[in-house]
Amino acid sequence: MRCTVIACLTFLSFVVVTAGISAGVTILLAHLFYIPIILEAYWFHRKVPLFAVGVGLCYLLIVVGFGSPFLIIFMVAGRVALFVAVSLLVSYLSVQLHDEERRFSRLVGSVSDPLLWMTGAGTVAYVNDAYCSLAGITPAAITGKTYIPAFFRDGAVGMEEFFSSLSPEHPAGMIESVAAGGDGHDHVVQWNVHAHYTTDGTVSGSITIGRDITALREAETALTKHVETLKAVFSNARECLIIGTCDDDGMPGQILDVNQYGCVIFGYSIAEMQSHRVKDLFPDTLSYLSTAMEAGRVGITDGHIEVRARGKGGARFPVEVAISSYELHGETLFVLAMRDITAWVTAQKALTESERRSRDFADFLPVPAFEVEANGGIIFRNMTTDPFFGYDEADWMEGLTIFALISSGEHPELREMFQVCLVKDTILSNEFTGVRQDGTRFPAMVYCRRMTEKSIVTGLRVLVADLTEQRGVENALNRSEMMYRTVFENTGTGMFLLNADGTIVNTNRTGAELVGYPLGMLLSGEYSFADLVVSEDRIGFRENAVQMFAGTVPPRTLPSVGLVDGDGMVHDTRVTLSFIPDSYQLAVSITDETGKNQSERLISVANGIIQLIIYENDTTHLLSAACTEFSRLDRYYVVSLALCHDGDIIISGISSPTFRETNAAFISRSPAPKEAVASKMVSYSPWTVGDAEAGTAEEIDVFVLPMIAGDQVEGVLSVYIRPSAMVTEQELTTLQVLANDVAYGIRSRRLEEQKREALSQIERNMEELSILNDHIRNPLQVILGLAGNGDAAYYDTMAAQVEEIDSIVCRLDQRCLESEKIRHFLRKHYHFDMKKK
Fold first, then answer.
1. With 0-12 CB in 10 A as exposed, 13-18 as middle and 19+ as buried, what is 547?
2. What is the pLDDT of residues 174-222, one digit of tens each?
3. Which of 63-67, 174-178, 409-413, 579-583 has the lowest mean pLDDT?
4. Burial class, 130, CB count within 10 angstroms (exposed 0-12 / middle 13-18 / buried 19+)
5. What is the pLDDT of residues 631-688, one digit of tens each?
6. Where would I find the H helices in 491-558?
7. Which residues on adjacent β-strands are paired with residue 211?
8. SS3 688
């Protein structure tokens, strides 16, 4: 059909255009070709405009065939291009239009509501599947045909009456009908009809959309029934029910209705209740009601809260309220259900208070507390239990028993204790090994006693006490005691604990060794610490001790206190006093500085002697000054110096004049000095001093140190140790070094004397040599003169010999001059003061 129309129009256009060209009209008639080109592009909408190209080429050939001018041909060619462009544009727009039609058809077809599109003549232009399903027909059966919709029960009359009720000013209307659907059931359908009018007011068409409201009508029927039921419930409910409106801010406001029971509770009539607002009945908790209503609306809670209401006389009473809101005709309403819980609250308070006291007492316990059944099942546990054993609520819900908290190897003992406790009304306890959730074990003391209710045993009460801390404290105390005992015994200083009367409570080994008394004797209480202090320091020590016991001064150090040991030896000590709080005892720390002081004095003496060795030139003065320096050590020991001379040992000096006789006797009679000289090693020998008959004799220690310089022993240094002192190995080493230094000084000075003597002798020899040279030259002159007076043959020989002798004497004079230069050098650089003797 479409192809025939296009072919006819194309043929007619060519006929007209050809006739026009023959008559001289070449351009205007060509517009006739647009009609078939546009129709072809609209109906077939091809991507390549072949039809337009063919028409254009035929038109161009006709124009060329009539011999038209070139300009006309060029314009025709442009017209052909315009044909192609119009064909492409129409084809594109046709495609878009068809796509939109298909999308619209799919959209309308997918609508679940019935849809019917009719023309003004009453024929069906379009119908969707939902309508066909509802009416039980097919689209082909009614499309393009006169059709009376299923919702017009009276047929055409009903449809005409409905459309007559519409007008261009009110073109839409709604009608409801009950029709049998394709499923065999009656359906209540609500139809919305929208008519379209022409300018003269006649109907040009209509669109009808239906909505199946069968379920809605059924719900309305059920709702009506429910409303009647609700009214009966509302009137006869044994709870206060209030309905009212919400204010603009969402708060419950004016009361609209209330049931009879509500009037009884509040003491108002219905009219009085309807005149009140909710805040009049709940003046203190209106905000809580609003919050509960909002929470219930969003599903956070069920909206039940406990508040206090106010009755007609102003009395307040506890109530349980459930409140919710709903929308009705654009207005927010609320429903409030209330129950008077005065009696329940009173009973609940009493019960709660009793339970609170019991629970508080149980939770107050610092140890886990349980109520268990006879088989170990846990009925109750206090708050301490969970963090103590590490279990959470889920673990307890799984059915943990009391036995799960005790080591499995001790379950028989625990069961036996429970059985005894169930029989006897007594408290039993025993130590077990507890087990926590993470498997850690700890020592635990378990206490149990039976529970009874109306003289019937219902279970056991069990307490579990952790002994870890107690064991830890015991161990810590033991460790602390051991640590302080170790520190006390090994501090390196003498430690004493004194009572207020000065008696010794305790001391360490260092202290006992320092004072030289047995430990038992010191702790017997017969000795006071002040008895060990030298008399000149005793008063000062006691005064400081009294101040320390008074607690008025901090720990104090006494820098120098003399302490007498069991052998009578006096020690230089440094004493620190410290008061021990809460014990009324004094801690005394003693540092023996005797060796330190002795060493410091020895070092000072050594420095002085070294200075003497450097600056003292005379040996006798050196030895005398050295003995003077050694006299500074007389408190500890006496030092004697003796030199070796021709196999004998000659005393040169001693540091203490009181030891001269003792020293002389020792040097002369003791083999130790000669042994030290012979062996070049330190020799030791005890020696008795004092008068044995008078009972003043005592034995002292004597060390003999050889004075070695190079490989030669210059003498000996004898050290007499006083009875109240002692000498250390380090001090002996220092004294040996000093002895060697003194020997070096003696040897150095002897060598200087020998050098001086040698140089003096050389100078004398040079003087005598000069004189001898003069004495030789004089006889030679005489001999040479006498030879000149004699035979000439002998003169030459004699003259040659005289010259030879004179040459030798001249060489001797030259060597003498050189020796003079050496002598001047020695005088200048070695400070030799060589005088002629």
1. middle
2. 877 776 666 667 778 877 888 888 888 788 888 888 787 888 888 888 8
3. 63-67
4. buried
5. 877 777 889 999 888 888 888 888 888 888 888 888 888 999 988 888 889 898 888 8
6. 509-515, 519-522, 535-550
7. 190
8. strand
d(CA 534, CA 524): 21
Copy the structure tokens of residue 203: 């109907």
Q: Which helix (H) or strand (E) holds 652?
A: strand 648-654
b/e burial code for range 23-38 (CB count within 10 A of at least 16 → b): eeebeebbebbbebbb
CA dihedral 666, 671, 676, 678 (to 10 degrees): 140
What is the amino acid identity at position 202? T
Task: Say if residue 43's pLDDT is above 50.
Answer: yes
Tokens of residue 216, six digits: 């809605």
**Tokens of residue 11, six digits:** 């043929």
Cα–Cα distance measured from residue 167 to residue 111, given in angstroms and rounded to the nearest whole number = 27
Q: Which of 142, 123, 152 has the alpha carbon at shortest distance from 210? A: 152
Residue tagged 């169930």 (tokens): 422
Of all residues in the chain, the percent with pLDDT exceeding 70 is 87
Q: Where does the pLDDT of residue 418 fall: very low under 50, low under 70, confident under 90, or very high at 90 and above?
A: very high
DSSP 220-235: HHHHHHHHHHHHHHHH
Closest-CA residue to 612 (of 623, 604, 598): 623
Burial profile 394-430: b = 16 or more Cβ within 10 angstroms, e = fewer: eeeeeebebbbbbeeebeeebeebbeebbeeeeebee
Taking the C-alpha atoms of residue 731 and residue 602, their distance in angstroms, rounded to an integer, is 8
Closest CA to 423 of 448, 442, 400: 448
DSSP structure string for 279-333: HHH-TT-HHHHHHHHHHHHTTSS--EEEEEEE-TTS-EEEEEEEEEEEEETTEEE
pLDDT band at 88 (very low <50, low <70, confident <90, very high): confident
